[in-house]
Each structure stands twice: as C-alpha cells, then as structure tokens.
Amino acid sequence: MQIWNPWHGCRKISPGCKNCYVYRRDESIGKDASHVEKTVNFDLPLKRNRNREYKLLPEDGVVYACMTSDFFLEEADSWRQDCWDMIKERKDLEFIIITKRIERFMDCIPADWGMGYDNVTVCCTCENQERADGRMPVFLSLPIKRKQVICEPMLEKIDLSPYLMGQIDFVICGGESGKNARLCDYDWILDMRRQCIGHNVAFHFKQTGAVFKKDGKIYRIERKYQIGQAAKAGIDFVPEGYVPVHRSRPVYTQMEFMLTGQEKREQKGCFQELFDRLAQSEFRSRFHLSEKDREYVLAKGMGVIRSHAEDFVSKRLSAAHPDKDGKQTPMRGHPVFLAQHATATCCRGCIEKWHKIPQGIELDAGQQEYLVDVMMEWIKRQMDGTGKAKNACKL
Ligand code: SF4
Ligand 1 within 6 A of 253 CB? Predict the structure, then answer.
C-alpha cells in the first residue's frame, strides 16, 4: 500500500470521529488537528526520484488518499482539482478514497468525471445505523465505478441489507482501538457477515478493537492482538470470481493504519525498553542531531518531518526486498536518516535484528507506522534533550 496525504487536518463531523486518530496523534506533538493545510507531499503522485522514475509505482500497491484528513473536506475545495488532475494523469495507479463526507461528492468532482474514473474506488464510512441510513442512499446514487463500505469503528448493529443490492462490492467491519475505545460486539460483526453473504458481497472482519464483546463476555484486547484475533475468527467472505481492488494486498482503514502508531506512542514503556537497548550499542549511540539538524526540525515542524519519515519508510524499506538494502539510508543529510541509524531502522537487516520484523516480507501499514514512531520518538528525545543523556549511556 502507498499513502498520499495531499493535506493534513480535519473537522469532526460524525460519531465515528470522536476518538479520531489524527487528533490524538497531533495532540501528542502539540499540533492543532483542526488546522487544515497542504502537505509537502501534495503532488506525490507526480514526484519522481533521481532516476526520473515516479515515486509511487503500481507494483507498490494501491494508493490510499487523504489518510490524515477527508478528501471531501470543505477547507480543501480549492486544492482538490489539482488532485483529480494527478489521479487522472496516473492512470496506472489505483486510488482509494475513504470519506465521511459522501454528501459533498457531486460538488467535488471534476468536470470530466462522467460515470467515474476507472482508477478510483470510493469507500463510504458507516459507523452506526443513523449514518448508514443517511449516507448509503446518497452513495448509491453517485456515479462511482467502484463502491465499498467501511463500518469502523462499528458502534452498533447496522442493517446494510437495503443497500447491498448491486453496487457495493466490499464491506469491511472492525472495532475501535485506543484507550477510550468504544465496545464492539461480535454479534454485530456476524450479523453484517450474514448480510454480505446473503447479497454475495465480499466481507472482511478487520479487527476486534480494544473492547470486544463475545458470547456476553467483554474482553480488553491489546492492540497487537486485535487484527490477529479478527483473522483467527476466519469469517471473511469472498464471492466466487471476486477481484479485489487491492489485488493480493491487504486492505487498510484509516483507523487501523494510524492507531497502530498512536498506540505505540502511548506505550512509552515499549519504547523505553528499545531505547535502553539502543543506548548499549556504541554504534547507535554515536548519532545525534546537530544544531543545523535541530534548526531544520524546528523550521519544518514535527508533522512535516514525520511525513518525510513515512516517505522514506514507504519508498526505501517497505518492499519485501528493497533496492540496495543495507545501503539505502545515507549517514547524514536529513534528521530522519540519523534517527534511522540511531534506532536501527535503517535497513531490513537491522530492523529484523532489533525490531524482530522479518526480512523478505512486505512491511504492512502497522509495521511501517511503528518504524516511523520509533524514528520520531528518537527525534523528539533529541529535540527535548532527553535523547542525549540516554544515548550517552554505554553500559
Ligand atoms: S479524519 Fe476522519 S475520523 Fe478524523 S475528524 Fe476527519 S472525518 Fe473524522
């Protein structure tokens, strides 16, 4: 999967937004998530590397657009046409747009949209019955080539059956993560599965969420087990002949992709253990942010630096067999490069050794997010001065 965040920041408009990961993440770095701004990666689909090749490639998977905002947000009205132009130009890429603002769709499409661009899938979020009944009739009336529904965080039992006839090809369900997560009942999930099977619509149980009810018992499930537990249930349904938009790749939702990182940050203990181990390595302890690096971080802001880290991880580390693995991270030139060497997130060999993420597999969204979190934690510690003391300690 590839992520393209042309702008960042959003406004809460729906019950599903209550514990929005964008807000939680931004709060943790002292940023106001309600402030919407273009990102440095606004034109990512057209960006090229030094060899004049596109940075986003079809073989790297579908492109999820606007994962830290909403593509149809009013504040982005004047920027969106440029995005459509890029989507149109990159016909070789598949774009997925997840939205809670489907009612704005017709006001936001380009003049030549017609019945829809072939390379755009739109996912409408329905977290409860009220939102389903409000959004689905609108969604079904729209000219979109490929339509999917995401019930995450699923907040109650939802009857989608009146809307599953003909157009919707995939429904994804999942619970809510995070420390304030709301309950998800397995009965709601099974009920949605029955509806999907009844209408021959693909179904995917994405994750249990943090507070999960099954057979009348409520379980608190750690983040690291939420996806695995859902997979263990083995209740996904794929109709005969179904060709997923993501082809052979996993599907991510905004919640899952970001909350993994958010929760990692909340688990400071987990980082502390890692940083204590790193402090014992003479090589890792050598790396520090210079005055110039610190000025760069201050000038750009942590949000931009994070987007750089995400880009580096996605382009240089995420493939099962990255190009020039072991040599893909320069020793200087960007604070993130230093963070990567300091935290052993510089190549797949180091990542396997220090972070127990095996080589030879494509990094999934949660793994990429984790690595970015580690780098950002190191940069944060360097910026607030705690990193120097820790890294100087050689046991
Ligand atoms: S990013 Fe999504 S969940 Fe967060 S406020 Fe915007 S629409 Fe709501």
Answer: no
**Residues 236 and 362 occupy one common structural domain:** no
**Could you list the residue range(s) of the whole structural domain that residue 49 is in?**
2-259
Question: For the chain, how many structural domains are there in total?
Answer: 2
Q: Is 10 in the pocket of ligand 1 (CB under 6 A)?
A: yes
Question: Would you tell me how many other CB atoms lie within 10 Å of the CB of residue 217?
Answer: 8
CA of 351 to the centre of ligand 1 (A): 32
Each of the 395 residues of the chain gets a pLDDT tens digit; together they read 789 999 999 999 999 999 998 998 888 888 999 999 999 999 999 999 888 999 999 988 899 999 999 999 999 999 999 999 999 999 999 999 999 999 999 999 999 999 999 999 999 999 999 999 999 999 999 999 999 999 999 999 999 999 998 899 999 999 998 889 999 999 999 999 999 999 999 999 999 999 999 999 999 998 888 888 998 899 999 888 787 765 433 444 444 434 344 444 444 455 777 888 899 999 999 999 998 999 899 888 887 898 899 899 999 999 989 999 999 999 999 999 999 999 999 999 999 889 878 888 888 777 888 899 899 989 988 987 765 433 322 22
**Which ranges in the chain belong to alpha helices (H)?**
21-28, 77-89, 105-108, 129-140, 186-198, 223-233, 254-266, 268-279, 282-285, 291-300, 302-312, 335-342, 348-355, 365-384, 386-392
Cβ of 338 closer than 6 Å to ligand 1, yes or no, is: no
Instruction: Let me know whether 332 and 275 are in one domain.
Output: yes
Residues 178 and 317 in one domain: no
How far is residue 123 CA from its own chain's centroid? Answer: 14
pTM above 0.70, yes or no: no
CA-closest residue to ligand 1 atom 5: 12
CB atoms within 10 A of CB 102: 24
Which of 70, 154, 262 to mutate for ligand 1's pocket (most ligand atoms within 8 Å of CB)?
Answer: 70
